[in-house]
Structure formats: structure tokens, C-alpha cells
Prior knowledge:
Blueprint: E1 11-16, H1 20-33, E2 37-42, H2 45-54, E3 59-63, E4 65-66, E5 69-70, H3 71-77, E6 83-88, H4 92-101, E7 105-109, H5 115-167, E8 171-176, E9 181-184, H6 186-192, H7 196-199, E10 211-212, H8 222-229, E11 233-234, E12 239-242, E13 248-259, E14 265-274, H9 276-312, H10 318-350, E15 358-360, H11 362-379, E16 383-388, E17 395-397, H12 399-415, E18 422-430, E19 433-440, H13 473-483, E20 487-493, E21 497-505, H14 509-513
Parallel strand pairs: 1-2, 1-3, 3-6, 6-7, 16-18
Antiparallel strand pairs: 4-5, 8-9, 8-14, 10-12, 11-13, 12-13, 13-14, 15-17, 18-19, 19-21, 20-21
Amino acid sequence: MEIENAENSKYRILLVEDDKIDQAAFERLVKQQGLSYDYTIVGSFTQAKGILASTRFDVAIVDYLLGDGTAFDVLQLANDTPVIFATGAGDEEIAVKAMKAGAYDYIIKDAQRNYLKILPQVVEKALAHKKTADALKQYHNNLEALVKERTEQLEEEKELLAVTLCSMSDGVIAVDVQKRIILFNKVAENLTKWKYHEVQGKIVDEIFHPIDEKTKNPGESPIDKVLSSRETETGSDRDALIARDGRECPISATAAPIRKNDGTMLGIVTVLRDVSREREIDRMKTDFISSVTHELRTPLTAIKAYITTILRDHDMTEQTKQEFLTIIDEESDLLKNLIEALLEVSRIESGTVKFSREPMDITAVIEQVLSAVRQLADTKGIQLKVDIADNLGVLQGDEGKIQSMVMNLVGNAIKFTPENGRVTISARRAGCELVINVSDTGLGIPKESLSKIFDRFYRVHRPGKQIKGTGLGLAIVKEIVNMHGGRIEVESELDKGSTFTVFLPLPTQTALYV
Length: 514
Ligand code: ADP
């Protein structure tokens, strides 16, 4: 910068002065005092305008009255160049105005030209003033840049926090120590059905207070627990919240204090998780245990009763004895099947299922299943219809598992179809897939259960007409289909019937013979 190097280089001075004598006096001064000025002298505003447009000066000394303008006009064009006003005696008022307008300094010209004596100091002062002003300006600029940078950083952090909170799969509610809501993310909005702008600043109890899912009594809010313990607290495993629309949602809630570095508690942050699915699985497991116990006990009780009768009744006819033994045989089969299903499920769960891959005749497999269930269908007066295409191709897989899959589907169709209904089994080839259809004219499955029937232990709740079962059959079917790289679909209409469709990939010619 010129000003900083001023000690080594000359000051570039512009003198705007229309009086030739004053111009000469200035030049004399520079010469006599050996001032280190590299100066330019112009005699009018127009000339000043021209030179200021192309040249930079460290200081401009400008006479107030120029033929074609005034020093104020020059000041307007000077930009960063410090301007020193030169006014005549008695023009102090102008000098004041000039300072207000941005001049760095002024000198009052006197007839004896004594003002020239102080001119060098005035120039030095103006330069020093400019240096300070520049430094100040630089400091302001730096400060401004810093503030801008910090503000942007804060904005970014704020946005990151907002995006993080938004993308969290859990609900987040933060409150201050007066329990006023200060933060409420999207999931919290979805769970409570309140919008953030509606609850901001409200006491949290108005929006969120857990109830006991079983008794419906208000539970202790984890937020209140944190307020008294000042530690992280978890709600009960029976908590539920009532949303704005009155709907109940099972939740798991954890609240933790928000602390400053010095430990002072500023508020509480609560994380809410929708645990409907987990609670449903728990319920299903409990149902399963009672269902299995019941299913095991029923045939066992019958077996025990018939055996006791046979043992006690020595006069029993051979025919009755045979009938009882047949029942015992059937009930033992039931028990065996149930235990096998349980074992299959546990094998699937532990991943130790044995699975062979052999070419098989699917028509024969379906026929074996049909002959096994024909008697059962006949006793219910259910018509069994079969429609198997000729060109099925050769399925590669585990014959035992495929048979158990068809058996489960056909067994269910017969089980859930009232007397005199119809069960149809069809098989065809579609492209490189084998499509097996099992449809019935039975009870049907409610829409809301369709996505759950393949879950382990799930059974459609049919008040008054619950049909025995374990809820394991379709889970096993789905696993078998998956093992063969296929898929299963279901369509159903309540009280009209259901159709289960299995798609299994058939090997391509090349794959079959490699
Ligand atoms: P289970 O038959 O032992 O109850 P599954 O896993 O085979 O168990 O079936 C699960 C549930 O799906 C059954 O309890 C039943 O409610 C429903 N379901 C399965 N197949 C049918 C069908 N063909 N018609 C109506 N409901 C069915």
C-alpha cells in the first residue's frame, strides 16, 4: 500500500488550485523544504475530474473556489483519496461543512501565505488519519466477514440439527424446565397428530402424557421423573399415548436432562418410539404359548381318557376297543404334526434346515397330497377340484418340503371352508415359473390380516368361530417358498373365499443338464 511505504517512496499529492500564484507558492514550498512529494497540479474541476479518473493520489489539496466548480465537487469524485480543503479567510463555515461532507482536514488561506508553513503537517495528519481509517475499515470488514461466517455456520448447524431430527425414526420432544415445548420433530407430530407451530411454548402435559395401555389410567410421565431425579428415565413397558384424534399408540419413552457444561439443567429431551409392532409380537407369542398348550393338551387329554377307559373296562367289546384305539391313533397323529411344526419352526429360526435340490414330478406331489386329504374333504362334503396342466416342466427342489407346502395350503383351504364348499388346486406353467393355485369358497381373510397371516403365530381372530391351529403353517409355507427362490400371494374376500398363489422358478434347459 502506498501509504505504508510512504517513508521510502514519495507521497503522491494532487493540488487543485486555479490561482497561479498559489500554485507557484506550493511548488516553492516543496522545493524549499525538500518535501518528498510527487505532485500534480491542476487548475480546474474538469482537470481534477480527468486526472482522478486515471490516477491514484495519497492526498488531494483542493481550493474551495475553482472556476468551473468547487472543492465539494472534487470531494465527490475523490473516493478513498483524503481531501484537504483550502478555503479563504472568513470561510470557516465552509470548512465545517467540508469536514461534515467527508473532507479529512482544511486550511485557511491567508494573504501572507503563512498557511503553507503548516501544510506539510496537515498532509502528514491527513495521511495518518487515512491510515487509521483504513485499518478501522479493514477491521470492520474482517469483523463483518467473521460474523457472516459464524452466522452461516450457525445456520448450517441449525439446519443439520433440524434435518437430523426430521430424519430420525423416533419422535423427539424437548421442553424447558417449566415443561414448555421448545422442539418437536416430524415423528412426534405424526405420533401425537399435533403440529410443531401449534404446540410450541405449550406445557407438554397438554400434548403428551402416557397412559397405562391395560388399565387406561394416567401413567407417570418420564419428563416428571427427570424433573425430580435429574437423571435419565424410562417410561413403563405398558405406556401408550393418546393422540389428538383420540387414537391410542403403544410407545416406549425415554427422557433425559439437557445440561449446560456447568451441569445446570436447561430442559428435558424425550425420545418416543412407536412400539405397536413389538407389542403385537409379544401378544402373538403369549397367544402362541397358550394356543400350543391348548393344542397339546386337547389330544393328550383325549388319549389319556381313552387309554384309562380301555385299562379299566375289562368287559369292553373288541369293536369298542378298536374304535378307541383308532381315536388314540388319530390324536397321536395330531400331536405328532403339531410337534413337527414346532420343530420345523425352530429349525427355520436357527437356520439348520436341511434342504435338497432334486428334480421332482410336481403332479405326483399334488396327487399324494390330495389322496391324503380326500377323506377329510369328504367328511365335510367339500368338493375337491383339480386342474393340472400337462406341460408343467420339472421343478427342482426339496420334494418333502414342497409336499408339506401344498399340504399346508390345501389343509387350510379345507379347514377354513364350511361344509359343502369347494377347494380347487391348479398348477400351470407361466414362462419360466411354475404357478400353483389353491383356492376355496371358505371364510375368507379380513383385509387388515392379509399382510400378517404369514407371520409366525398369527391367526385371524374370529370371535365365536375360532378354528384350532397354531399359526405356524403359513410361516413355514413362506419359508419353503423363499428357499426355492419363489414368492407367494394371497387374495381373499371375507365370507367368499381365498386364493393362495405360489410362483416357483423352473430351471432353464441349460441349468437343468449342467
Ligand atoms: P393355522 O392354520 O395353524 O391357524 P396358518 O399359519 O396356517 O395357521 O394360518 C394362519 C391364519 O391364516 C389362520 O389362523 C387363518 O386365520 C388364516 N388362513 C390361512 N389360510 C386360510 C384360508 N384358506 N381361509 C381363511 N383363512 C385362512
